[in-house]
C-alpha cells in the first residue's frame, strides 16, 4: 500500500511508521522535521496546518491520521487536495463524558469530559468534522497507549522508582482501574480494518481486561526485578502532584474490536519490552514531571 502517516517521529506515530515500513509498504510521513525520521520513509517537511499545494493531486491508499488533535488539523488535511481510498483517525476515549456509565460503549453519547477538558472536546470536534466530510473514515477511540517510544512519564516513572528502590506512593488503596492498548496492537487492528472493511466505522480499542493501579505498579516493579513497598496517600492530596494518572476510574467496552481481533498483547509482555527499551533510552520522555521531588518534599 501507499500510506500517508501524520507525524512519524514520536511514540505512536513513529511506531506506526516503522511497523508499516517493516511490512514492505510505501510510507510517507508528514511532519515538521524537528526530529530524526524513521528509516525507509518518504518525508514531507510541512506543518499540517500550512500545507499549501504540497499534497494536491497526491493519492494514497490510506491516510493514518495519528496526530490530529483539533478540527483544524483534520480540515486542513482533508481540504489539501489529497485523495485517498481509506482514512483512519486516532481519536480518544476522552470524547466520552466521565458521567457516562462504565464501560463506555460506542453507542453512548459523547460530550465534554471534565477530566480531559479541551483535549477531549477538540478530539470530538475533529471526529464530527471527519464523519461529515469523509463518511467512510474509521475512527478509533483508545484508552492509554503504552510500548516502546513512550514519551509521557508514566511507565518510566514507575520503572525509575523501582530501579532506585523507592517506596511507591499509591493513591488511596490503589484500586483505581486503568486500561491500556499496546501500539503494536493498534497497528494490527488498523491492518485488519483495511483488509476487512467492516461496516461499523467507530471502534473503541484496547485490552479487554483492566488492571488496578496497585496491580500495574506491582507488575512494573516485578519487571524491574523489585517488589514495591506501598505508601497509601490520602485522597485529599491532589493526585497528579505525585502520581502519573488522573484520578479517573474508567473502562472501554472493546467487544466490537474483539470480534475482529480477539487477542491482544499480554500486558506483562508489553511492559517487559518497554522496560528493556526504556533502560537504554531514559531521555525519551519529553517532560519528566517532578513527582519524586513532590513526594520527597511533601509526603
Uncertain residue segments: none
Average pLDDT works out at 97
Specify the structural class: alpha/beta
Can you count the helices? 9
Shape: globular
Strand order of the largest sheet: 3-2-1-4-5-6-11
Number of domains: 2
Model description:
The chain is α/β, with parallel strands linked by helices and 299 residues long. It has two domains: 2-145 and 182-204, Rossmann fold (3-Layer(aba) Sandwich), CATH 3.40.50.720; 152-178 and 209-249 and 266-298, UDP-galactose 4-epimerase, domain 1. It contains nine helices and 13 strands. It has helices at 11-22, 71-78, 118-133, 155-163, 183-196, 213-223, 255-260, 267-280, 291-298, and strands spanning 2-6, 26-31, 42-45, 59-65, 83-90, 138-141, 144-146, 168-171, 177-178, 180-182, 202-204, 211-212, 230-233. Strands 3-2-1-4-5-6-11 form a seven-stranded parallel sheet. It has a two-stranded parallel ribbon with strand order 7-10. Helix 1 packs across helix 5. It is globular. The model has no long low-confidence stretch (mean pLDDT 97).
Summarize the structure.
The protein is of the alpha/beta class and about 300 residues long.
Task: Please give a handful of descriptors for the protein shown.
299 residues, alpha/beta, Rossmann fold, UDP-galactose 4-epimerase, domain 1, 2 domains, seven-stranded parallel sheet, two-stranded parallel sheet, 9 helices, 33% helix, globular
Task: Summarize the SSE layout with pairings.
Elements: E1 2-6, H1 11-22, E2 26-31, E3 42-45, E4 59-65, H2 71-78, E5 83-90, H3 118-133, E6 138-141, E7 144-146, H4 155-163, E8 168-171, E9 177-178, E10 180-182, H5 183-196, E11 202-204, E12 211-212, H6 213-223, E13 230-233, H7 255-260, H8 267-280, H9 291-298
Parallel strand pairs: 1-2, 1-4, 2-3, 4-5, 5-6, 6-11, 7-10, 8-13
Antiparallel strand pairs: 9-12
Helix pairs in contact: 1-5, 2-3
Amino acid at each position: 500500500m501507499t500510506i500517508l502517516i501524520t507525524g512519524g517521529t514520536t511514540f505512536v506515530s513513529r511506531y506506526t511508521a516503522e511497523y508499516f515500513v517493516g511490512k514492505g509498504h510505501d510510507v510517507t510521513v508528514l511532519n515538521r522535521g524537528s526530529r530524526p525520521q524513521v528509516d525507509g520513509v518518504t518525508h514531507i517537511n510541512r506543518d499540517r496546518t500550512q500545507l499549501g499545494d504540497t499534497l494536491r493531486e497526491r493519492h494514497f491508499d490510506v491516510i493514518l491520521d495519528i496526530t490530529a488533535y483539533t478540527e483544524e488539523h483534520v480540515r486542513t488535511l482533508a481540504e489539501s487536495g489529497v485523495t485517498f481510498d481509506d482514512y483512519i483517525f486516532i481519536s480518544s476515549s476522552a470524547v466520552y463524558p466521565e458521567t457516562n456509565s462504565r464501560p463506555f460503549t460506542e453507542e453512548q453519547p459523547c460530550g465534554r469530559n471534565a477530566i480531559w477538558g479541551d483535549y477531549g472536546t477538540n478530539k470530538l470536534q475533529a471526529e464530527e468534522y471527519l464523519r461529515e466530510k469523509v463518511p467512510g473514515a474509521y475512527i478509533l477511540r483508545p484508552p492509554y497507549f503504552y510500548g516502546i517510544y513512550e514519551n509521557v512519564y508514566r511507565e518510566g516513572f514507575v520503572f525509575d522508582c523501582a530501579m532506585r528502590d523507592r517506596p511507591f506512593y499509591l493513591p488511596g488503596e490503589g484500586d483505581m482501574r486503568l486500561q491500556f492498548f499496546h501500539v503494536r496492537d493498534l497497528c494490527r487492528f488498523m491492518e485488519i480494518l483495511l483488509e476487512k472493511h467492516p461496516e461499523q466505522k467507530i471502534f473503541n480499542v484496547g485490552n479487554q481486561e483492566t488492571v488496578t493501579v496497585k496491580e500495574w505498579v506491582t507488575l512494573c516493579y516485578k519487571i524491574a526485578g523489585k517488589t514495591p513497598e506501598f505508601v497509601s496517600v490520602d485522597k485529599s492530596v491532589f493526585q497528579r502532584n505525585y502520581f502519573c494518572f488522573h484520578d479517573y476510574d474508567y473502562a472501554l467496552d472493546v467487544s466490537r474490536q474483539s470480534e475482529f481481533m480477539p487477542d491482544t498483547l499480554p500486558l506483562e509482555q508489553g511492559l517487559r519490552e518497554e522496560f528493556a527499551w526504556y533502560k537504554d533510552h531514559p531521555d525519551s520522555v519529553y517532560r519528566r514531571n517532578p513527582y519524586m521531588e513532590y513526594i520527597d518534599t511533601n509526603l
